[in-house]
Amino acid sequence: MSASQLTLELRWAPEFGREAWADALQPGLLVALEGWIDAAGPGAMALIGPAAHGKSHLLQIAAERAQSAGRSVDWLSPPIAGVGPELLDQRQAALLCIDALEAFPTGSEWDAAWFHLLNRQHDRRAQVLIAARHWPPICGLPDLRSRWALAARWPLRPLEDIDFPAVIEAKARGLGLRLAPSVLALLAAEGPRDPARLVELLRRLDRESLAAGRKPGPRILRALLRRLHSAHAPVDPA
Prior knowledge:
The chain is of the alpha/beta class and 238 residues long. It has helices at 19-25, 29-39, 55-68, 108-123, 142-149, 164-174, 181-190, 195-212, 218-231; strands spanning 43-48, 73-76, 95-98, 127-132, 152-155. Strands 2-3-4-1-5 form a 5-stranded parallel beta sheet, sandwiched between helices. Helix 4 links the parallel strand 3 and strand 4. It is elongated and about 60 Å long.
């Protein structure tokens, strides 16, 4: 097993799991994804959507489900600078997860490496699960474009303002926080829309509330929001 292959039991933070994304915000997706993993049939599926919409966490859910069924799992993430297409050589597993496909380098050598990797998975009657911001991927090799075109596609619905109360409540619950309606309303109106920043804000709210010996309330949250907005305010060029 290569150094990059998945060797540890996957666990993900609960605020990024099932409740926060799939059931409430992407109806039907989790059931379809789990059914596809359980069927263990050959083929590829692409989860397509903007950043911070839970694609990587859905890949983690799928990977753990396959592992729990005793299947081999391999995971590919965008490489660090200087790593070439040899990263893809000899990679194979019952389930191959490819995260952030759009962030991988491009070019004829990479196209060839992807084509051979997908062929290996096809020949083994194995599965490929892909997370990408857009589809199809950009490539110059016609045979590779044909391979990508065979993937089943599931576009993730963009998050809208109406979704954020459910996101906030699910993420707070994942952190063990029970927030009063007034706090939830303030977060929905003024909190960050980026889920990673939202989680960090909730963690800071929890820490500062504990330090003050109080329940998380609007007063502490307003102070945190002021600091957050100040940190991300545009710099005056004057």
